[in-house]
Amino acid sequence: MNDLLTVRDLESRFKVGGGLKSLFSPKTYIKAVAGVSLDLKEGQTLAIVGESGSGKTTLARAIAGMGEDASGEVLFNGQNVLALPKSDQKALRRDVAFIFQDAVSSLSPRYTVRALLLEPFQIHGMMPDDPDAEVTRMLTLVGLPATMADRRPHELSGGQARRVGVARALALGPKLVIADEPTAGLDVSVQGEVLNLLNDLREKLNLALLVITHNLNIVRHVADHMAIMYLGRIVEIGETQDIFDHPKHPYTAALLSANPTTEVDVADGRIRLEGEVPSLLARPPGCEFHGRCPFARERCTYDPPEVRTAPDGRRFTCHFPLGPDGTPTE
Ligand code: SF4
């Protein structure tokens, strides 16, 4: 498999405050994503996992060249997305597609499915010779009948709308598809269908998939690799099965423990998270997870852990990683 995406030391910041009220609240920059490095090959699926506010959507936007204020390196097919001139960003939009989480509201109610599916071609000045045949091809690709072309979004079920969203994302033949909470708002019975569709399309079209989710069942269903984010940083990244079998970072273990269908074998049962997620405006010193970590020691309060690589290739940031029995090994 060829490398498609290489991200190194990516940082993305938001500006808050300023404006008319700046005397009272001067503008401040919040680092929403910090020091992120990851790799994705053609045909692979990487799930970015984290609680809400962990920075996973900001990370996805930065990778797609839609970041607010991003620095570092995002190499897509060898090109640094963050340094691309405006004129080349349109071409990037063809190669990197988004599937948005709110399927129905991401489709304009004024248009028919046919018009919605042809819109990406119009925007990029690439209208097919036979638009009707193209619409039928796209609908067939996502398992919908050609008769759907005349419907409007409010006439579709949640699952059908999600399939139209997937077809639209694939219209221009992207190499990377970013799916943000791909099954949000869908009935459980339809969720499996949508995940199977994404898996099938990834295989058939040799796509790379980046799936943003807080749902570990989705991760297990579609992703061969996963990255766990906390306060905008990746705390553990590697093969999904290795991480599910033996999480090394206490935060990963706590997330897996909180999921009733993942049977994580940790020392005395389950790791429970204490306290609240700290504010991005006041990142804790040392390991940023130390205030909630059941295994924190004094060193964790002042010494930020470096990225370490385990023998199985996964990377993690913890001074005292967990062993197979769920207790620190060092
Ligand atoms: Fe817990 Fe310390 Fe590891 Fe941070 S470095 S996750 S506080 S044990």
Automatic annotation (TrEMBL):
GO cellular component labels: plasma membrane
Major localisation: membrane
Keyword Transport: yes
GO BP, sorted A to Z: peptide transport; transmembrane transport
Entry-linked NCBIfam families: oligo_HPY (TIGR01727)
Cited PROSITE patterns: ABC_TRANSPORTER_1, ABC_TRANSPORTER_2
SUPFAM superfamilies reported for this sequence: P-loop containing nucleoside triphosphate hydrolases
Species the sequence originates in: Thalassorhabdomicrobium marinisediminis
Cell compartment(s), UniProt: Cell inner membrane
Protein name per Swiss-Prot or TrEMBL: Peptide ABC transporter ATP-binding protein
Superkingdom of the organism of origin: Bacteria
Membrane topology note: Peripheral membrane protein
Pfam families, sorted: ABC_tran (PF00005), oligo_HPY (PF08352)
Example GO molecular function: ATP hydrolysis activity
Positions of the ABC transporter domain: 5-256
Family: Belongs to the ABC transporter superfamily.
Key words, A-Z: ATP-binding, Nucleotide-binding, Transport
